Amino acid sequence: MSGLTTPVSDALSSRWRINVSGRVYGPYTGHQLKAFAQEGRIAPHSIVQAGEQGPWITAIDDPVLGQLFVQRQAAVQAQPAAAAETTHANFVIIADIRSRSSVPFEAALARQGEGYRLNPLVWLLHSDRSAGTLRNELVPHLGQSDTLLIVDATRSRTAWFNLGPEPDAKIRKVWKRAGDKTGN
């Protein structure tokens, strides 16, 4: 029977690319995408490609990546009811919108919860969404030259779009959550 199925950890050594609003990122290993999924940076509806020749499909439909979301959904369902008390969070959203009007972005943001525009680049928001979900809802209203950083001030989480590889690495190094190891 051995050899008929590939363990998920072995399959995660493969590489995928991600398509966000027509812009292709990667390649990333499955291990990187697993971390992205845990952070909410990739969602079941994210568009991915296995290797460089595979078809573009949603992450949930990929035989390997789809397992990440099934496992995550099972963990969420197993959480105790007390977790419902902390379903709302406070967010700081920083968006540098250069490519088009900010009106569609602001309309999408208004649908996410109670908000306030602090200045031309910064919004405060109270919502029941996660940082990753907010990012996924707002990115379709951004252009290729726009940037977005979402800080979940309640849960100590972040999500971002279009900042580039260097800021991505620096954010991961600087932003630590309770329980994170600090000795990298």
> Main beta sheet, described?
5 strands, antiparallel
- Could you please say which CATH topology of the largest domain applies here? Alpha-Beta Plaits
Residue-averaged pLDDT, rounded? 81
> Quick one: overall form?
globular
Number of strands: 9
- Roughly how many Å apart are the termini? 40 Å
CATH architecture of the largest domain: 2-Layer Sandwich
Q: Order of strands side by side in the largest beta sheet? A: 6-7-5-8-9
Unreliable segments of 5+ consecutive residues = 1-6, 81-85
Q: What's the gyration radius in Å?
A: 17 Å
How large a portion of the residues is in β-strands, by DSSP E? 25-35%
- Per DSSP, the total helix count is 6
Please bin the fraction of helical residues.
25-40%
Along the chain, the helix and strand elements come as HEEHEEHEHEEHEEH
What keywords describe this structure?
184 residues, alpha+beta, Dna Ligase, domain 1, Alpha-Beta Plaits, 2 domains, five-stranded antiparallel beta sheet, four-stranded antiparallel beta sheet, 6 helices, 9 strands, globular
Give a structural overview.
The protein is of the alpha+beta class. It folds into 2 domains: 8-78, 2-Layer Sandwich (Dna Ligase, domain 1), CATH 3.30.1490; 85-174, 2-Layer Sandwich (Alpha-Beta Plaits), CATH 3.30.70.240. Helix content is 29%, strand content 28%. The protein has 6 helices and 9 strands. The chain has helices at 8-11, 30-39, 65-78, 103-110, 131-138, 165-174, and strands at 15-20, 23-29, 47-50, 56-58, 89-96, 113-119, 122-127, 147-152, 157-161. The strands form 2 sheets. A 5-stranded antiparallel sheet has the order 6-7-5-8-9, with helices on one face. It has a 4-stranded antiparallel sheet with strand order 2-1-3-4. Strand 6 (113-119) and strand 7 form a beta hairpin. The model is unreliable at 1-6 and 81-85 (pLDDT under 50).
